[in-house]
Amino acid sequence: MARFNILWRIVVEAVDVEEAQATADEVARLAGIEGMQPVARYEEPPQWMTDVVMSEEAEETACLFGKCLARAGRLGNEWLAAALSDLAEGGECYATFNASERNRPKVAGLKWALVEVWAASHDM
Questions:
Q1: Burial 2-24 (b: 16+ CB within 10 A, else e)
Q2: Looking at the record's lineage, which domain of life comes first (predicted)?
Q3: Which of 11, 21, 76, 85 can pair with 112 through a Cys bridge, CB separation 3.0 to 4.6 Å?
Q4: What is the domain extent for residue 59?
Q5: Integer distance in angstroms from the first to the last C-alpha of the chain?
Q6: Cβ-proximal residues to 49 (8 Å cutoff; 6+ apart), any chain
Q7: Cis peptide bond prior to 46, omega within 30° of 0
């Protein structure tokens, strides 16, 4: 088994920090994300962001990325996966979610999310 890092990053829209934190907590609960940082103001009001880097063991990047995508699917239907050609070499890969009229989030207020997986051996 190899050790991997998983970055979960989310951006929510909310009128205040309490609402933003409640939304982020619900996103984390649905996706099984532990240890999210408190929300902080993002680029433009009323946006807030939080993230966490987790560590997990898996046989290979593809297996762990598939597991992360299954968990991410609890937040919204359409995720854009990228860097998939790097999976064979154990490279990093990621997926993003962008809320839209056609791609509604399961948690009201979720605007954008990212999940990224990379081998811990690639850390500097």
A1: eebbbbbbbbbbbeeeebbbbbb
A2: Bacteria
A3: 11
A4: 2-122
A5: 20
A6: 9, 10, 11, 12, 39, 40, 41, 42
A7: yes
CATH number where 89 lies: 3.30.70
Nearest to 39 by CA among 22, 56, 63, 64: 22
- pLDDT 10s digits, 23-67: 999 999 999 999 999 999 998 889 999 999 999 999 888 899 999
Helix (H) or strand (E) holding 36: none
pLDDT band at 82 (very low <50, low <70, confident <90, very high): very high
| Mean pLDDT, all residues of the chain | 93
Phi, then psi, of 22 in degrees rounded to 5: -65, -40
DSSP calls for 101-122:
SSS--SSTTEEEEEEEEEEGGG
Element (H, E) at 59: none
* CA 66 and chain centroid, separation: 13
Number of folded domains that form the chain:
1
